[in-house]
Amino acid sequence: MRWSSVLLALGVTVAWRAPMEGQSFMLQIRPRVGDTLRMRLDQQSEMTGTKSVGGSESTAISVTTMQMFSRAIVEGMSPDGTTVLAVTDSVLLSTSDARSRGSGKAAASAPQSLRGTRVRFHVAPDGAVTMSGDDKAPREVAEAVAVMPAAFPKAAVSVGESWIREMVLPGVSQLCTPLSGKLRVTFRLDSVARGGDLAYVSMRGEMQPATGLGAAAAGSTLEKGSVSGTMLVDRRRGWLTESRFNIAISSTITAPATAGIAAMHMRVKITQHMRTVDKR
Question: In 3D, which of 205, 209, 208 has the Cα closest to residue 227?
Answer without folding.
Answer: 205
